[in-house]
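DM from R.C. (forwarded with permission)

"hey, sorry to bug you on a friday — could you get me a structure for this? deadline for the figure draft is monday and I only need the backbone to look sensible"
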Amino acid sequence: MKYKKLAENIIEDLGGKDNINSSWHCVTRLRFTVKDKNKIKEQDIKEIPEVIGTQWSGNQFQIIVGSKVNDVFEAIQGLVQNKNTSENNADKKGIWQKMISCLTSIFTPILPALAGTGLIKGFLTLAVALKWINTTNGTYIVLNVLSDCVFYFLPFLLAVSAAKFFKVNEYLALALAGVLLYPTIINAANAVGTKAAVTPINFLNIFPVPWVKYNNSVIPIILSVWLFKYVYKWIKKWMPSVLDFMFTPMIAFLITVPIELVVLGPLGQYAGTIVANVLNQMFKTVGPLAGFIFGATYSLMILTGMHHALAPVAMNSIATMGYDNMIIPINEVTNLAQSGAAFGVALRSKDTKIKQLAWSSGFSALMGITEPAMYGVNLKYKKPFYFSMFSAGIAGALIGWFGVKCFAMGVPGLPFLTAFVDKDNVMNFIWAVVAVIISFSLSFILSFLFGGINEKAPINSDDNLKVVSPVVGNLKSIKQVEDDTFASEVMGKGIAVVPDDGNIVAPIEGKISVLPEDTKHAIGIIGDNGMEVLVHIGIDTIELKGKGFKPLVKVGDHVKQGQLIEKIDINKIKKEGYDPIVMTIVTNSGNYKEFRVHPTGIVSVGAPVMEVQNG
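My reply, with the result:
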């Protein structure tokens, strides 16, 4: 019930539950496909206090809500009934976008299991290295089984999530995974690994079955479930309904399993091994350079979702070599760099709300969940994000130089450092710690010193910057506005005027930066003095789609303070049932030391209503 109201607002701004095709989520983002994109009120969603940000990825609309994503998603699912909880495969996307979306949907559900057991693996390795426990101890044996089981039986977990994505019966998919992990296959593959004699198998006395170790494997089961989907659908088309229950699965298995063992399984496993070996060789030959480039750009991969395509590579590296010296170590320093940048912003900022958001999101990134820090803080102020990229690049170069290895899967954060413990090489853990310290500290220091928060805005005359009323009417406190987003000042400090006429003037001198073509209900101005102001006309007037609004400027125009920039039809707005109150918000309020708002009451257009003092 706690998140029901938030869920209702999100569904309404998505165009209602009938506009939602499918919904699912990852660690921090709600993900949707919809029937009509034009029905989504993206700006309204961004203005919901609990929403950190939004973005499009192909035809997929993402709403970033942070660590509470599970609770919000459950609330949404309780209101949106009979909707698919996996991506709509009918969306028209490029091959790369489809692959990213597929991997995202398949890997996200199993992350908690990987993270939990991976953390146990790290602590267990640390305990052995410090001689707190020996490998023959009963407690060690039980905990080792627990820490290895998820990774060993990974095809089973992936079979379930792949089945949900491809819309295949989960139990049929589990049977395909059972074939890959059947003792006959695994034992023969292990024997081949020791160069022992193994009797070959030829299916139908024609097709040889390669002996491949599929425990820990990733790609083979995904390809097998994908093939099974189409085979099953094809059989179902012509199978009589009275025979469907038994014979459709039987024939589908008879077709799919031989192809799985002869073609798809070996192909998927060998392809993953080749990619892992190529990347491993790259890190061996040009380790520092590869580490710097990879570290500096990994945050960009997270923004686009491309990092999900690297998960199978990391898993395959651990499965084949016992460690990953590329993706997970780089992800570790990248996450800590985001955390350091957010903490730098928190310490530098004088704004209470910014501090609170930066501290909480910085701690989240410290634990391995970076999206709140990336979207809510670092990207918002730009410089901290650039500093985090640079810092991760420097730390990545060190990882590449010393060949730092990670021995488990999980969510890279501070607690995950135990996964870098190598009982045979203590320096591996030490260099991992050094890389993390460099990444976090450098990002923190740069963001604190040069992060663009609370810096003095450039001015042309004196230290007090004046904002004038954009319209004639009754001046009110912004806190009296019947809209929580504006009243809570989460958008910034400002004032509100109940207008007496429809002439809107520029409250400051500067360049028009925002003016939605379809709704025309808001105008953003970047002042010549560095101030950023948003004139928002009405509450929920985005729904009018421009009716009653007539802008006289366009994006890129330079305007004088007091210049007429838009005309509105107050009566029409009221007739449609909307409040035409005009709000003037200083959106970069954190850059200034003090705000002085003039007394409420009748105010004329162009009259000073707010003074902003530089820090």
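R.C.: lifesaver. Residues 86-92, 454-463 have pLDDT under 50 and may be disordered.
me: no worries. Residues 17 and 81 are 8 Å apart (CA to CA).
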